[in-house]
Structure formats: structure tokens, C-alpha cells
TrEMBL record:
This protein's name: Alpha/beta hydrolase
Matching SUPFAM superfamilies: alpha/beta-Hydrolases
Name of one Pfam family that matches: Ser_hydrolase
Organism: Stigmatella ashevillensis
Superkingdom classification of source: Bacteria
Entry keywords, A to Z: Hydrolase
Claim: Calcium is one of the keywords in the record: no
Matches recorded under Gene3D superfamilies: alpha/beta hydrolase
């Protein structure tokens, strides 16, 4: 597997989050650290992502959650393709009333087609985005949409542990990318 960069969202991902479990499971995984998890700024977060990608010897895969997805999409609109693909989990609708005010500075999120393979994973009861809005994001970005049913925000509160379904999606994305290169 290529390097795996893990991009948490607002307030980072705690020890019970699937992203933290994946860091423990996959030796090639590395969390993209942000200067401030509670008061995110778009420029800082995109700069941290760019630095993490540049530090990889080969193009990495990304596993982004929530505001981490918004960061990836902003980065992609500026930088182009230097990654193999991305698993985009539970992107927030930044216009949704329940989204924390600190996250709204990432709006508007670019809606152009992404220049790499991506899978958008959405829940039917995410408190930060309607399923219809997730469908529209997937369509705009040219992503395959994966419906995980009623899994909330697909975070620690969802009780996913190591999230085997997400691991299967990541493996499938890796195989898609490798098949495209052959």
C-alpha cells in the first residue's frame, strides 16, 4: 500500500475514532497534524496537507474525515494531482445550521471535478449534511458515492472501531488506482 495520510476534521480524531485505529493498524499511515484543531484556518490546513504530501516519497492515498474532506477539496483546486486517490468520509455541508461556526471559514468548498480517484462515504443521518447534499458533492467532484446507511457522522460516536467497511473501501480504492496505472 502507498503512504496513507489521515486527515481528521474539526477538533481532531480521538483515540476511539476509526482514523486513530487506522494509524495503529497501518504502518504506512501518518496523521496530518494541524497547528490548531479548535480554531481551524483554511490556509494553515491546506499548507499542512501540502507539506505532508510533499514529504511522501511516492504519491499517497488520503483518508479524510469531515472538515479534513473540505481541506482536501480546497487543496485539489489549487494543486492538482500528486496523490493516488482519496477516501472522503462524511464531508460537512458548511451551510448546514449545525456546523460549528469555526468551520464556516472553509466555505465555499470548490465543486469542480477532482483530478484523482475518490470515494465519498456518506451516512443517511449525518447531523452535518443531508444525504442529498452528500450525493450532490459526490456528483460535482466525480466521486463514487458509498452509502453506509444510518451511521451518524461516521466518527467515534458511531462506534465503528477499526471500521472494517472503511478498510474494504480503502483497499478497493487502492486496487482501482493500481489497475488504472497498469
Amino acid at each position: 500500500m502507498p503512504p496513507l495520510l489521515i486527515l481528521p476534521g474539526y477538533n481532531n480524531s480521538g483515540p476511539q475514532h476509526w482514523q486513530s485505529a487506522w494509524e495503529r493498524l497501518f504502518p504506512e499511515a501518518r496523521r496530518v497534524q494541524q497547528r490548531d484543531w479548535e480554531q481551524p484556518t483554511l490556509e494553515d490546513w491546506v499548507t499542512a496537507l501540502e507539506a505532508a504530501i510533499s514529504a511522501c516519497a511516492v504519491p499517497p492515498l488520503l483518508a479524510a474525515h469531515s472538515l479534513g474532506v473540505s481541506t482536501v477539496v480546497h487543496w485539489a483546486a489549487r494543486q492538482g494531482q500528486r496523490i493516488q486517490g482519496a477516501l472522503l468520509v462524511a464531508p460537512p455541508d458548511l451551510a448546514h445550521p449545525s456546523v460549528p461556526e469555526a468551520c464556516k471559514a472553509f466555505a465555499p468548498v470548490p465543486r469542480q471535478r477532482l483530478p484523482f480517484r475518490a470515494v465519498l462515504v456518506a451516512s443517511r443521518d449525518d447531523p452535518y449534511a443531508s444525504f442529498e447534499q452528500s450525493e450532490q458533492m459526490a456528483q460535482d467532484w466525480g466521486c463514487r458515492l458509498e452509502d453506509v446507511g444510518r451511521a451518524g457522522h461516521i466518527n467515534s460516536d458511531s462506534g465503528l472501531g477499526e471500521w472494517p467497511q472503511g478498510q474494504r473501501l480503502l483497499r478497493a480504492l487502492t486496487q482501482d488506482v493500481e489497475g488504472q496505472e497498469a
